[in-house]
Structure prediction request, 555 residues.
Amino acid sequence: MAVVPRSKARTAHVNMMTDTIIANLPADALRSVVRAILTTEPSVTAIFEKQTQHYLQKTAREPTGELFLSTANGVKSTPNFTLAQQRIRATIGCGLVFESLPLLKEVVDKSADLQTPLDASPLSGLDHSLASVDGDIVQALTGVQKCLLSDDGSRKLAAEEEAGMNALFKSLLQCRQKWLTAKQEFPFERSTSVIATMLCDAAAVQTLLHQDERRSNHTVQKMVSTSLETFRIKDTNLPRLFSGLWQLSSPSWGVASRSQMFKQFIEYISRGFTAFDMADHYGDAEVTFGRLRSSLSRPGDVFGATKYCVFHKITVTPEVIRANITERCRRMDAERVDLLQFHWQDYDDRQYIQALQLLQQDERIRYLGLCNFDSNRLQEVIDSGVDVVTNQVQFSLIDARPRFTMGDVCKQHNIKLLTYGTLCGGFLADKWLGRPKPQLFGSESTPSQRKYFEMIQTWGNWDLFQSLLQVLKTISDKHKVSISNVASRWVLDFPYVGAVIVGARMGVSEHTEENLNTYGWNLDEADQNSIEEILQQSRREEMFNDMGDCGSEYR
Prediction:
């Protein structure tokens, strides 16, 4: 006889009209509505995640079926693969990261005997599918790290959790050996490196390094533009465009093999883009960057900025703080961190001053910065005697909150802003001029676009945004550059801005030549006035008053 689980037998009535909405809204529209509910009522997020967990757990025993199919044109992924991957991603997203590991292991096991023809084009068909799974594993492992966070830093894996991690790692190593024996590029190189690092398997890490031919020294041929602009952090010159690696946190921004990523890293560095921004929660960004930099013949030419982000409650002690920096150095394959940017979620917990003081004492941190601190807390940090050199905040034509109070604090204390969101997820670009509103859940949309479309709607509306793009187009034609160049230049022309962080989809898309056109010119008075005419029609003051100062949207 079936046993009914002992849980609260409680439900509420959903009226017929509401049920009609759910049953008839197109899938993309329903997703947009759900996202709108979560952004306007954040308290609902926990309920949404919990109900997702219940659904996935109830349907966990459904078979995956065949994931790959041999055809006359080679091996391809099946519709079952797509369904399995959607399930994996939902499982990771709702916090059931350890439950996702057996599903990922199954995909790896079924991939072990699938090698692509030597003449296959990069990332075509099967390769693209497997590279996306590599990204999924990386995202799952990032979720594991989040689950291990505790008041005293990070707890150890429980026995069952460690068994799941080891089983996945074993499958990855076995799959890797088969692919390398077949003289094919292993599709799960990124995730294998990350899990080896997480499990502290020194022997496996060394084996991976030894077998990886791409570890041979890369010599970068410099092709730096004569118009390259720099700014100074104490005794260090840095480019005014950083390359942001947040896209490595999820395959939602596109996928590529590690070798393709390395190739593009080298291209960026050769063109003078030698500074990279990452974080402890950006997937395998630290690991990939560390591997790449260590393979260079001149690793000191490349600057790595990462973050220590405290999103949950911790008890600040010297041991907790030092352990995090040890982890940053280990993942980045470095003895010290060039720039450590500190984010603290809960201002009511004033331990952030103590944490920063301890970070300042750590000799492995070359420079100390902040991330998403508002003006008042930035001033408080300065008054406490902590020597911070940067603050990373959102700053763009759409979100100009740093102009209100942050800029004055930075100018007074010679602190430079590193700005993200400057191109609004790619919306501040020629391709969006004259275009209708985006399909936020279309095949080409990204999490960044969903985020910044909401920001555009808060700032004004799509029609006003199109008017802004038209003005920027006129200016870009005048200076023979792109709309994106003008948008970046507008931010760079503020004296308290050190650098704009431009997202880099390594191995997926490449914009080095266009990005170089941001350098070597300035907006004149007429340009500034025409932009200001549009900005005066926006809700920029209301954004500051209603959203709060820099970083408030995260709190």
